Amino acid sequence: MKAFFPKGQQIDETRLNDVTKLLGENVGHRDLLIENLHVLQDEYGYLSRDTLAALACAMKLSQVEVFETATFYAHFNVEEKAKTSPAKACSGIACQMARPHPLGPNIKTVPCVGACDKAPINDTSAATPALQNYPDLAQYQAAGGYDILKKLQARDISKDHILSELEKSKLSGMGGAGFPVARKWRFLLSSEGERALVVNADEGEPGTFKDRYCLETNPHQVLEGMLIAAEVIDAKDIYIYLRDEYPHIRNILLTELNSLRAGGLNKGRSLHLRRGAGAYICGEETALLESIEGKRGLPRIKPPYPAQSGIFGRPTLVNNVETLWRVQEILKKGAQNFIEAGYPRFYSVSGRINKPGVVEAPSGITIRQLMETYCAGMQSGHTFKAYLPGGASGGLLPAHLDNVPLAFGELEKYGCFIGSAAVVVLSDHDDMKSVVRNLMDFFNHESCGQCTPCRLGCEKISKILEHGKLDIPLLQELSAVMQSASICGLGQAAPNPLLGYLTHFAEELK
Ligand SMILES: Cc1cc2nc3c(=O)[nH]c(=O)nc-3n(C[C@H](O)[C@H](O)[C@H](O)COP(=O)(O)O)c2cc1C
Ligand code: SF4
Q1: Regarding the domain delimited by 432-509, which CATH topology (the fold level of the hierarchy) does it fall under?
Q2: pLDDT tens, residue by residue, 358-400
Q3: How far, in Å, CA of 203 to CA of 323, rounded?
């Protein structure tokens, strides 16, 4: 008689028991798939086929669903042999520029880890500080923290007052799109159903590290803004989606969210902290919702917008970390104060300046003022040549356009945008083609692959920059298709630095 071999990956009973024990009650929650993958990887050091098969069985999911999710995220190590990860270097543009020699071919690299002020990061495990020094709940409250929230909860100030102050301040979202905050909150109020709030702490735009600064220096300012937003829109659940590259901030948030619960400041609203897994696209708000639901971060087609149908189909407000920081500040000091201060925001400044770091400056400041007033000028021996006004996506400008206000609605005239205000200063030591290649390689690596213009467009541009002679009309045509036909902002913005290069550095192409 022929032996019978069941098809597919078989379940190892011992592994299944271990996995079930390790995950406890989380095993029954579909949306916790990514959290569960983290727990298993932390335990075993990597995700073997046995582990993935056992996880699928324990969570009652198909193996393909678990496998495709695990392999979508760069931080999951789905390899049998590579049990210990070698040191990894950051391949972000600020790190690339700061290295005197290119990295060797055997060095593993990862996309920008959000520590551009400390560039170059040659071992990412050293990028996060071990010790934290920030005001805890008691210290924050002693300085008047949570007063606004408590007044709102007691109805000593009204939701209308909050919304009209935010309207007066003209606060725009700080995550990149610059959408007016009060208007978004009002959309939520007109949506029926159980509402949710998502705090976008994914901060993946190369060159951006201002949300890290907010959460490292005063996490309760962000958390107060978050609870104010939740109170205004009456969100039952609050999710914070934090990039996995900031484990020290995860520890801060775990502690401080517990303090909030213990102090009852969340008024029964559920607080969920979710851990990203190394996918830039999950910063895009709808990909982020998919990821919180435990799936691959594939952006959804809009409409419907999250305010109409967001997480688990519920009306959802998505706001960036700094946006919520500003909400607290505006309500504490008044909209007039914010206006008189010139609509301040945080700029993450890196590259060839003397003092890289997070700078708080008025909206609409120019690159010249930013460099000279806040960053102690150019490094010695470097001449200012060009800059990225808004990270990898925000385009590329030459030094002679140094008087353009760095603000929403101003840079667009030059095919650029401010986005999350990640300003990278380039000098005569930097080869523009290598800079653009670094950025295009990043987009190529991070494209979710869901739509053809972005998937193929990023790949082709990357390859052409690596090998080919630049066929300018062809590159322009390719860029136009990507900009107009990609599903989400990644593909739409990816050609921006290339187009800046073709427009402003034509002499280098000859
Ligand atoms: C490819 C891509 C990546 C993004 N990454 C982030 C991010 O890391 N953090 C963020 O707050 N917003 C990011 N955004 C913008 C979000 O989609 C969304 O507009 C923002 O979180 C809304 O918050 P805000 O209105 O407070 O800015 C990204 C958008 C795109 C298209
Ligand atoms: S534009 Fe790129 S990242 Fe966005 S959905 Fe399409 S393939 Fe994915």
Answers
A1: de novo design (two linked rop proteins) (1.20.1440)
A2: 999 999 999 999 999 999 999 999 999 999 999 999 999 999 9
A3: 13
Nearest to 404 by CA among 396, 352, 170, 343: 396
pLDDT in tens, 260-273: 999 999 999 999 99
How far is it, in rounded angstroms, from Cα 344 to Cα 158?
25
CA dist 142 and 119 (Å) reads 36
- Domain 137-336 class, CATH top level: alpha beta
Q: Where on the phi/psi map is residue 415: left (φ > 0), alpha (ψ -120 to 50), or beta?
A: left
Number of the ligand 2 atom closest to the C-alpha atom of 281: 3
Q: Which two tokens stand for residue 234?
A: 């009456």
Distance 41 CA to ligand 2 centre (A): 27
What is the third-level CATH fold of 344-427?
Ubiquitin-like (UB roll) (3.10.20)
Amino acid in position 367: I
Judged on CB neighbours under 10 Å (0-12, 13-18, 19+), 144 is exposed
pTM for the full model?
0.97
Provide residues with CB under 6 Å of ligand 1. Answer: 173-177, 179, 200, 202-205, 281, 283-285, 318-320, 323, 488-490
Residue 238 β-bridge partners: 197, 271
Beta strands in 325-410 (DSSP E): 345-351, 357-361, 384-388, 397-398
Structure tokens at 84: 């210990």
